[in-house]
């Protein structure tokens, strides 16, 4: 699998370099949307905390009076090719299977945001504008060069071993670089020196608590400590999920790892339930994204189930920078 990912990385990086050369030489020109666009992206494949950042950012924009929309490809959703409107800012209009799991999770967290789905992001921006939206947050948009953006935000942590979609040198296109806080106190300074065109800020992942699946009520961490727990997830970097559980004092007795964006067919849910019984577990814990697919499961209906909600803490200067830019945009 690692070898296949390495080959995929080489293919993607080569393709991105060619594409970026065409844009640099202005042979290809990005198309301007009818509203201001903030892109949140990464040069890595999956698991870079883009979704929590998007939630933070859209909440910030809405709280400061800007009618804001999410523009998402809707990866692995039914609407990925055809496009669609998941939320008009008042109601969620479809299912996670239509939009993909991450846009649906964002819609649940920010009901007042418009959520527009589809590969044609320019068309989604046009739809958002026609419904009165002023700002668009483009999810996972760093490689989507066809659409002009007014601000490129990229999450990047040099210390982490991962597979890259494009060379690290591509970060010079970023207006803002967000780096996870680490033990190396000089890392931020090195990035600022290497990419003087970018403003560099730091962030950290925050455990926002464990919630009971059946009613979304928050539970005290202590309630789960010492319990015999079965954990599972279908995310890009499952080791991060386990790490947060252990930091909270929860050490799963068994852990199922499924592929990212896993849909959880009935057979998989039955497998989880059977393992729960076999090890005499007292509860199951998963991620917020995974709950979308299991919430109506008959197999898990009688099992005490919880999900972990995570967020990001970003330097206050990051939001000051966003605020200053907004004054010139809208």
Task: Give an overview of the whole structure.
- The longest helix has 23 residues, at 2-24.
- This protein is 35% helix and 23% strand.
- It contains eleven helices and 13 strands.
- Strands 1, 2, 3, 4, 5, 6, 7, 8, 9, 10, 11, 12 and 13 form a 13-stranded mixed β-sheet that branches.
- Strand 12 (283-287), helix 10 and strand 13 (305-314) form a beta-alpha-beta unit.
- With 330 residues, it is of the alpha/beta class.
In short:
With 330 residues, the chain is an alpha/beta fold. Helices cover 35% and strands 23% of the residues. Strand 7, helix 6 and strand 8 form a beta-alpha-beta unit.
Q: Can you tag this structure with a few keywords?
A:
330 residues, alpha/beta, Rossmann fold, 13 strands, 35% helix, globular
Secondary structure layout:
Blueprint: H1 2-24, E1 36-42, H2 50-63, E2 68-72, E3 84-88, H3 96-99, H4 101-109, E4 114-117, H5 121-130, E5 135-139, E6 151-155, E7 176-180, H6 187-194, E8 199-212, E9 218-219, H7 221-224, E10 229-233, H8 238-247, E11 254-257, H9 266-278, E12 283-287, H10 288-294, E13 305-314, H11 316-329
Parallel strand pairs: 1-5, 1-6, 2-4, 2-5, 6-7, 7-8, 10-11, 10-12, 12-13
Antiparallel strand pairs: 3-4, 8-9, 8-13
Helix pairs in contact: 4-10
């Amino acid at each position: 699998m690692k070898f296949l990912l390495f080959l995929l990385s080489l293919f993607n990086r080569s393709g991105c370099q060619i594409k970026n050369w065409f844009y640099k030489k202005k042979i290809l020109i990005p198309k301007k949307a009818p509203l201001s666009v903030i892109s949140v992206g990464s040069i890595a494949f999956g698991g870079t905390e883009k979704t929590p950042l998007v939630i933070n950012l859209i909440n910030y924009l809405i709280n400061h009076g800007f009618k804001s929309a999410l523009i998402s490809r809707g990866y692995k959703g039914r609407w990925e090719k055809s496009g669609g409107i998941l939320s008009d800012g008042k109601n969620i209009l479809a299912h996670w299977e239509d939009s993909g799991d991450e846009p649906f999770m964002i819609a649940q967290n920010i009901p007042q945001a418009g959520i527009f789905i589809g590969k044609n992001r320019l068309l989604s921006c046009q739809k958002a504008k026609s419904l009165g939206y002023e700002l668009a947050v483009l999810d996972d948009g760093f490689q989507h060069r066809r659409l002009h953006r007014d601000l490129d935000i990229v999450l990047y942590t040099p210390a982490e071993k991962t597979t890259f979609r494009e060379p690290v040198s591509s970060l010079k296109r970023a207006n803002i670089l967000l780096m996870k806080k680490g033990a190396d106190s000089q890392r931020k300074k090195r990035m600022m020196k290497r990419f003087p065109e970018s403003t560099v800020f730091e962030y950290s992942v925050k455990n926002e608590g464990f919630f009971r699946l059946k009613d979304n009520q928050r539970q005290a961490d202590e309630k789960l400590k010492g319990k015999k727990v079965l954990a599972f997830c279908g995310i890009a970097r499952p080791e991060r999920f386990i790490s947060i559980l252990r930091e909270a004092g929860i050490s799963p007795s068994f852990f199922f790892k499924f592929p990212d964006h896993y849909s959880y067919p009935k057979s998989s849910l039955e497998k989880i339930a059977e393992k729960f019984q076999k090890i005499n577990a007292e509860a199951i814990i998963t991620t917020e994204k995974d709950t979308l697919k299991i919430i109506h499961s008959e197999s898990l209906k009688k099992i005490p189930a919880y999900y972990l909600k995570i967020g990001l803490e970003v330097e206050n200067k990051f939001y000051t920078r966003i605020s200053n830019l907004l004054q010139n945009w809208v």
